[in-house]
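Hello,

I think I submitted the thiamine diphosphate job twice by accident. Can you confirm which output corresponds to this input? Input:
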Amino acid sequence: MPSKLVQRDMRVQNLPHIWCAGCSHGSVMRALCQAMENAGLERKNTVIVSGIGCSSRAAGYLNYDTIHTTHGRALAFATGIKMARPDLEVIVLTGDGDISAIGGNHLIHACRRNIDLTCIVMNNSIYGMTGGQYSPTTPTGDYATTAPYGNIDRDFDIPLLAGSAGASFTARGTAYNIVETTKIMEKAIKHHGFSLVDVASICPSYYGRKNRKGDAVAMLQWQKDNSVNIKTAEKMNQEELNGKIITGIFKNEQCPEYTDEYRKIIKRAGGR
Ligand SMILES: Cc1ncc(C[n+]2csc(CCOP(=O)(O)OP(=O)(O)O)c2C)c(N)n1
Ligand code: SF4
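Support: Only one job matched these inputs. Its output is below.
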């Protein structure tokens, strides 16, 4: 018998899902359901928007008003929805490829505008859906289908990028510590302004296999052993932090929000 949360939040008729055994996208999706419940979101006021990728498939399994859009464009669709209906809670589900490669320009401008969207990035450091090509978050030196001798690109730190571009809430959780990740998601949902939660995720089928990281259990164990909360990280030097996943809330500020500012312009122009 599926749990109450699954019965309430999932389109069980769309199961079985497409994810490989051990993929962490399901745990992240489940954490989002819990965070939405904890934040008091109602189905009638909530829209979930995704791009394209294994991660973006989550929108299809959630029993909300959802849009599975085009690759990289989830934030553009979400911006349109929020501009038309600022009263709605708009949540974007995306992958590292979707949001920081093809969708990178949409990301920095959504951050710059500080529009009130919550963006959950399932960051598995690879393009899973298309067979393991390297993404902008594949660590330098790691292997991918398109980097058989090692990746020479330097990788993005997505929360750092988002914060620098103007997002007022940025954070990172892990698939391993899903309890902490759920709490972070709840805060991100409640935040008024652009919130980005990067969730260090695992793709055992491609990233794990190409980089000899072992099975899903070994990959999660690695996350457990190598995660450092921001408060502890502040007391560590760069050498000690090398290769670590820094978690927690990095930025949480109140700044003018885009749809609020837009309403003011409408009033100034004589509209309602
Ligand atoms: C315009 C366009 N270009 C390329 C693709 C092929 N494509 C589909 S998903 C994807 C990458 C997805 O990677 P990511 O967002 O990291 O998600 P994951 O599958 O790893 O969860 C690509 C390149 C596409 N669907 N549309
Ligand atoms: S290919 Fe990777 S990201 Fe896609 S479902 Fe499988 S494990 Fe998950």
